[in-house]
């Protein structure tokens, strides 16, 4: 929920600060308090970067509509030209690379995107998107594009900084660490906040550290559910926890299915990029393929992927991730124009659907502008909670009236019938979310070492000088 303690360790040492909590939480509260505090302080910098870049990313969807309006939007004409002519115009302006996909104009005022791969100077994971006016075949520009949502340079840069600090696979560890701890801090803060007396949760009429605590806890309690969601969905495509989640889904037969693009034979030279000169035209051509997909019920927006080789089919997929989700796909034989395979989103396993919706909600596309505003509100809340958390830490150090922090050894107060299952659960979670498990173990080791050092210093101080 937050990145600093909902209740300070110092406050807890005062007789009137700890509220009478339910019996089941009483033994755990000091342990949760200590974990919430130290995890908040140490993980907060990672969460702050993730929240700030997430805020920018949520706003980037609307920003790119203004920044790249000339490329993305066109004057509405009378009748759209065949896809073949639009691709030919794009290839004339940009003969480099090969056509890897075509996204026909999805609305009356939007341009067609012809995606080129293998273009010099363009990242291997990106495509060069050539924007074509569907009414006149005028090429309106070309921009790098990344990902299935068609992110253009502005949103791509923010997305990569949010995901990996633009450091590649190594940088992804930062975002996975943040996602791994966000749900722990949120859940812990929620328990601490609601285990306090109602009078101590008030914001009005308070000042100083108690007011900061009230703001921190109140905002955190309201935003906790959103933080839990962001953490869970963020982990689904992380490096290590994401791999474990994918393995679990596969074992449960809940993996995302894929369409078969094999036609089972040669196409008489009509397949493959080489045979088409990199134009994307194979056999019956793009327009007949699109018509066949329309006949199967695939409405805009769609993406047409040319055959990869002589034994492959065209694949036409819906790419709408806003609600209602359109993710149906069809494979079409380039030699005959016949549909060889159909994959409907309605037939996806339950967990595959939930994963799709969860990721799209996390990235701000499922409910469009409303979704993006909600994400901006959540990330702004997280930024404020981090600031308030550090402010409470500073205020506690300035004002000794709040007493000493919770002493070490809080786990020793937890009854064995609670502690043993708790350790087992933590071990299982740490296995499936390894960055959480490793960093938690590191926290424990450092805390034990610091405790031993303090103990020895205290013992040395008590010894009489010779």
TrEMBL record:
Return the InterPro entries for the record: PepSY, PepSY-ass_TM
The reply on keyword Transport is no
Domain of life of the source: Bacteria
What are the boundaries of the region Disordered? 1-20, 258-280
Gly residues biased stretches: 270-280
Residue ranges crossing the lipid bilayer per the database entry: 37-58, 173-194, 215-237, 373-393, 414-432
Please state every residue range assigned to the domain named PepSY: 80-141
Keywords in alphabetical order: Membrane, Transmembrane, Transmembrane helix
Polar residues biased stretches: 1-11
Note the PANTHER family from the entry: IRON-REGULATED INNER MEMBRANE PROTEIN-RELATED, PEPSY DOMAIN-CONTAINING PROTEIN
What is the recorded name of this protein?
A: PepSY-associated TM helix domain-containing protein
Q: Which organism is it from?
A: Streptomyces lanatus
| Source lineage | Bacteria, Bacillati, Actinomycetota, Actinomycetes, Kitasatosporales
């Amino acid at each position: 929920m937050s990145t600093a303690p909902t209740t300070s360790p110092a406050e807890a040492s005062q007789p009137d600060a700890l509220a009478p909590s339910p019996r089941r939480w009483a033994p755990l509260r000091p342990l949760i308090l200590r974990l919430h505090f130290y995890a908040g302080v140490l993980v907060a910098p990672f969460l702050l970067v993730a929240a700030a870049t997430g805020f920018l990313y949520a706003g980037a969807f609307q920003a790119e509509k203004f920044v790249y309006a000339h490329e993305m939007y066109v004057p509405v004409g009378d009748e759209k030209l065949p896809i073949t002519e639009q691709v030919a115009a794009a290839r004339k302006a940009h003969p480099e690379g090969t056509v890897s996909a075509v996204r026909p104009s999805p609305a009356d005022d939007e341009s067609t995107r012809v995606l080129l791969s293998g273009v010099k100077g363009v990242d291997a994971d990106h495509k060069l998107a050539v924007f074509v006016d569907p009414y006149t075949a005028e090429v309106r520009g070309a921009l790098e594009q990344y990902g299935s949502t068609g992110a253009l340079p502005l949103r791509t840069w923010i997305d990569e900084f949010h995901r990996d600090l633009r450091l590649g696979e190594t940088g992804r560890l930062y975002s996975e660490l943040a996602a791994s701890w966000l749900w722990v801090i949120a859940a812990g803060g929620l328990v601490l906040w609601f285990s306090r007396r109602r009078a101590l949760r008030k914001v009005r009429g308070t000042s100083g550290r108690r007011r900061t605590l009230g703001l921190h806890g109140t905002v955190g309690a309201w935003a906790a559910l959103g933080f839990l969601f962001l953490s869970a969905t963020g982990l689904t495509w992380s490096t290590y926890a994401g791999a474990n989640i994918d393995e679990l889904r596969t074992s449960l037969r809940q993996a995302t299915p894929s369409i078969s693009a094999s036609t089972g034979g040669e196409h008489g030279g009509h397949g493959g990029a080489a045979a088409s000169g990199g134009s994307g035209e194979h056999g019956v051509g793009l327009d007949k393929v699109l018509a066949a997909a329309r006949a199967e019920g695939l409405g805009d927006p769609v993406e047409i992927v040319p055959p990869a080789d002589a034994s492959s089919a065209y694949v036409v997929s819906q790419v709408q991730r806003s609600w209602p989700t359109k993710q149906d796909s069809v494979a079409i034989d380039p030699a005959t124009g016949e549909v060889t395979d159909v994959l409907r989103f309605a037939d996806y396993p339950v967990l595959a659907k939930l994963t799709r919706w969860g990721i799209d909600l996390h990235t701000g596309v499922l409910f469009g502008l409303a979704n993006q505003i909600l994400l901006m509100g959540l990330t702004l809340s997280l930024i404020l909670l981090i600031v308030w958390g550090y402010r409470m830490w500073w205020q506690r150090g300035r004002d000794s009236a709040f007493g000493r922090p919770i002493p070490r050894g809080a786990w020793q107060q937890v009854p064995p019938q609670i502690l043993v299952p708790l350790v087992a659960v933590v071990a299982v979670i740490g296995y499936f979310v390894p960055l959480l498990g490793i960093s938690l173990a590191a926290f424990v080791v450092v805390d034990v070492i610091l405790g031993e050092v303090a103990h020895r210093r205290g013992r040395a101080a008590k010894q009489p000088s010779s």
